[in-house]
Amino acid sequence: MYEVIICTISSGRVQRKRFDNWDAAWACSDKWLAKNKKSRTYTVSVERVEQPVKVKTTGRSISA
């Protein structure tokens, strides 16, 4: 999986968007960078992230 990290410079707000493939992540990154051409409002990066492990629980749940 790939994650696009968008940081708003003035406020420090961070947005994270996950994608299954490299091309989709870079397309999103390019869209944000196009918004950023005139004024340096955002920093944008693309990172590879490991897919979280899915834990399947079986059995009974404890009830009070």
Mind explaining what this structure looks like?
The protein has one helix at residues 22-35, and strands at residues 2-8, 14-19, 42-48. The protein is an alpha+beta fold and 64 residues long. The protein has one domain (2-48). Strands 2-1-3 form a three-stranded antiparallel beta sheet, with helices on one face. The radius of gyration is 18 Å and the shape is elongated.
Query: Gap between N and C termini, in Å?
Result: 40 Å
SSE pattern, N- to C-terminal: EEHE
Helix content: 10-25%
Supply the helix-strand structural class: alpha+beta
Count of distinct strands: 3
Strand content: 25-35%
- Strands of the widest sheet, in order across it, are 2-1-3
Number of domains as seen in the coordinates? 1
Topology:
Blueprint lengths: L1 E7 L5 E6 L2 H14 L6 E7 L16
Antiparallel strand pairs: 1-2, 1-3
Core attributes:
alpha+beta, about 60 residues, 3 strands, single chain, 1 helix, 3-stranded antiparallel β-sheet, elongated
